[in-house]
Design brief:
This protein is 18% helix and 41% strand. It has helices at 41-50, 64-72, 148-159, 180-193, and strands at 10-14, 25-32, 54-61, 76-84, 91-98, 104-113, 118-128, 134-141, 169-174, 196-197, 207-208, 211-212, 214-219, 221-228, 239-245. α3 (148-159) runs parallel beside α4 (180-193).
Length: 246
């Protein structure tokens, strides 16, 4: 595979913000888009956006149809681009959409997928809250085809900005925890950071080798409701949660 690096790693778009700040009770969606390839993806995406205030997405590929859907979403989008697809040169990475504008956006692509030599992007976004505070959202698509040491490093990198943040925190995404050792590393990171795992009943999350791969962890937030949407327009099912600032 020939790797094409983007000239501009951060791409902004979508709808204009409709809120100055996130409300103290807000709705979160987390979904791996599988590069927006399924013919029903746009329909499901817009349905999820209609019921979300904050949306963390992985395997985002900014095709013309994806950009059009983002403009119709009612959310402002910030995409951190890892690479350009070899054939069509489409920006590919992870993204966050929100009804309020991000106050700060940081990203890092220093972790490399060893098999495909693709940079794995991590995003840290700080959003204003209506109570005057701030929320930190960490969007992660964890390194997959690697040994445990690379996975541990990626988790450590994602966690580094959480330690010092004093407000509510969300760490979510596709963690690629297809082994028990990976899962234990992820849970250890969460415990160190004081994060609580969001549970789902029934648990319809996408599994690989019998283990869920998508997770939401929170700190300083009450989980009012959570569910897995039974959408089939990606190889991952969306995670939804209603959260309240403590």
């Amino acid at each position: 595979m020939t790797l094409f690096l983007p000239d501009t790693p951060l791409i902004n778009g979508g709808s204009a913000p409709t809120l100055k700040a996130l409300p103290e009770t807000f709705r979160l969606a987390v979904w791996n888009w599988h590069k927006c390839k399924h013919p029903l993806w746009q329909k499901d995406f817009l349905a999820l956006c209609a019921q979300s205030d904050l949306f963390l997405a992985q395997e985002v590929q900014l095709s013309p149809s994806c950009r059009q859907a983002a403009r119709q979403s009612g959310l402002q989008w910030n995409a951190a681009i890892s690479f350009l697809s070899p054939r069509r040169k489409l920006p590919t990475g992870i993204a966050a959409g929100c009804r309020a504008p991000a106050k700060q956006i940081l990203f890092d692509s220093s972790v490399i997928e060893p098999l495909l030599r693709i940079p794995k992007m991590t995003m840290w976004l700080v959003y204003p809250l209506s109570n005057g505070g701030q929320l930190l959202a960490v969007n992660l698509h964890a390194v997959n085809f690697s040994g445990l040491s690379s996975f541990k490093y990626h988790l450590h990198q994602a966690a580094q900005r959480v330690h010092a943040f004093e407000g509510p925190v969300i760490v979510a995404g596709d963690f690629n925890v297809w082994s028990e050792k990976r899962r234990q590393e992820m849970l250890g990171m969460a415990q160190t950071l004081g994060l609580a795992e969001v549970s789902f009943h029934p648990d319809l999350r996408t599994r690989y080798l019998h283990r869920p791969v998508d997770y939401i962890f929170t700190r300083g937030l009450k989980v009012c409701a959570s569910r897995v949407a039974d959408f089939r327009s990606s190889d991952h099912r969306p995670l939804l949660a209603k959260l309240q600032v403590l």
